[in-house]
Design a protein that fits this description.
By secondary structure, the chain is of the alpha/beta class. The protein is built from 17 helices and 12 strands.
C-alpha cells in the first residue's frame, strides 16, 4: 500500500515533522509505504525571504508538484494533501488537474484553519477567487484528517464524506529519554545551567515561550504582564525562536531555535506560555507548543482560544488566562510556588502521555489510513 504525502512545507517546519515525518516508522510497520513530497520549501514561505525570491520559489514548487502528480497516473497510489497542492491557485484549476490525471481519491489533512487564510483574507480579489477553495477540496476528498474539533466541524459542514480527528502529538518517550540522558537537568540548578549566564535574574523561575517569527506577535498580547513581572524581579522571560525586532521593547531573552537544542532549552523553562488572539484562524490551531511544554512536565498558562480549552485542564495542569490581570496573577502564582509548578506539571505530563503522545495516536492514524487505502484500491480493482 502506497501513500504519497504532500505536506505544505519541508522538514524545516514543525508541522511537517510532527504531522508526517515522526509517523513514518509506525506506518511502515503497518505495511503502508509513504513517500513525502513537500509543496513549499523555506524560501517559498511568506516572510522568510524577499518577495521576488518567494515568488520564484513558489512557481518552482508549482512545477515540481505538477510533475510529480503527473507520474501518479501510472501508479497505484493514493495522495494525501496537507491543505492544498498549489497555494493561491483557484479550486477549479487544482481539482481540474487532479481529474485530468485521473486522480479522484485523495486524503486531506489540516492542522490549521487554512480555509480562513482565504475567506478572511484582506484582499477582496483573493476572497473572491479562493474563499471556498479549501472547503471544496475537503468536500471532494475521501477523508479529512483534522487536527482538532474546530477544523473537523468545518470539514463536516463543507460536506466531507468522512472526518477523523488526529491531534498534533509529540513523542513523549523521546522527551523522557532526554531527561534520563541528562539527569542533571532534573535538578533545579542543572536546569538553569544552559541559560544562567544570559538571564537577568539567575536563580529565578524561567517563563518560556517557543514559536517562530510569524507567531512572535502573540507575545505582545501580554506585554504588560511581562513588564510587570520583570520589573519586580519575579521571573525571567525567554522567547525561543522569536523575532527580535518585534520584541525589542520587551525585557525578553531571545534564543535562536535549533532542532538540536530544542529539548535542552524547553527543559530549562519553569512555566510554558501560549498567548493567542481570539480570531477565526487561531481557533483552528492545534496547540503544539502547549503539548511540548506538558511533555516536559511544565505547568502552562494559555489564552482560552480554540483547542487550548481542551488541552489545558484549567487549574489542574495549568491556567487559562483571558485578560491581563489573569495572566499576571497566574504567572506570579506559579513563579512563587515551586510545589504548585511540580503538581500542575505532573498532571500536564500525564495528559500529554494519555491524549497527545505519538504512542497513543500512531495506531489510530495507521488504522484510518489503512482502511481508506484498502477500500480505495478494492473499488478501483473492480
Amino acid at each position: 500500500m502506497k501513500l504519497l504525502v504532500f505536506p505544505r512545507y519541508d522538514s524545516t517546519q514543525a508541522s511537517t515533522r510532527v504531522r508526517v515525518l515522526q509517523y513514518l516508522p509506525f506506518l511502515k510497520v503497518e505495511g503502508i509505504e509513504v513517500e513525502v513530497f513537500h509543496v513549499l520549501d523555506s524560501k517559498g514561505i511568506s516572510g522568510k525571504s524577499s518577495v521576488l525570491v518567494m515568488l520564484a520559489s513558489r512557481f518552482k514548487s508549482y512545477y515540481r508538484v505538477a510533475s510529480r502528480l503527473l507520474k501518479c497516473s501510472g501508479e497505484k497510489t493514493v495522495i494525501s494533501i496537507h491543505s492544498e497542492l498549489f497555494p493561491f491557485i483557484p479550486f477549479n484549476i487544482e481539482y481540474g488537474y487532479l481529474r485530468l490525471l485521473g486522480i479522484r481519491n485523495y486524503v486531506m489533512e489540516l492542522d490549521d484553519a487554512w480555509f480562513h487564510r482565504y475567506d478572511c483574507h484582506p484582499n477582496r480579489i483573493v476572497r473572491y477567487l479562493l474563499a471556498s477553495k479549501i472547503r471544496k477540496l475537503m468536500q471532494k476528498s475521501i477523508l479529512v484528517i483534522a487536527g482538532n474539533k474546530y477544523i473537523a466541524d468545518n470539514a463536516k459542514a463543507a460536506g466531507s464524506p468522512r472526518v477523523e480527528i488526529i491531534p498534533t502529538v509529540v513523542d513523549t518517550g523521546r522527551y523522557r529519554d532526554f531527561l534520563l540522558t541528562f539527569p542533571d537537568l532534573q535538578e533545579k540548578s542543572g536546569r538553569k545551567e544552559f541559560l544562567a549566564s544570559h538571564l537577568p535574574y539567575p536563580g529565578k523561575p524561567v517563563i518560556g515561550w517557543i514559536g517562530s517569527p510569524a507567531t512572535t506577535k502573540f507575545l505582545l498580547l501580554i506585554s504588560d504582564s511581562i513588564k510587570h513581572i520583570h520589573e519586580r524581579k519575579i521571573a525571567n522571560f525567554v522567547a525561543y525562536g522569536a523575532d527580535y525586532k518585534q520584541l525589542k521593547d520587551l525585557p525578553v531573552k531571545i534564543v535562536s531555535w535549533s532542532e538540536d537544542t530544542e529539548l535542552s532549552v524547553l527543559y530549562q523553562f519553569d512555566v510554558g506560555i501560549m498567548p493567542l488572539v481570539d480570531s477565526e484562524f487561531e481557533r483552528g490551531k492545534c496547540g503544539y507548543k502547549l503539548i511540548q511544554y506538558m511533555a516536559c512536565g511544565l505547568p502552562v498558562v494559555a489564552s482560552p482560544v480554540g483547542v487550548n480549552r481542551e488541552i489545558v485542564a484549567d487549574g489542574k495542569s495549568g491556567y487559562l488566562a483571558g485578560n491581563d490581570e489573569e495572566w499576571t496573577t497566574f504567572l506570579i502564582r506559579l513563579c512563587l510556588d515551586s510545589n504548585l509548578r511540580i503538581e500542575l506539571g505532573k498532571e500536564g505530563l500525564s495528559r500529554a502521555e494519555m491524549y497527545y503522545s505519538l504512542k497513543v495516536n500512531s495506531p489510530k492514524l495507521a488504522a484510518v489510513l489503512k482502511e481508506v487505502l484498502l477500500k480505495t484500491w478494492n473499488v478501483e480493482e473492480r
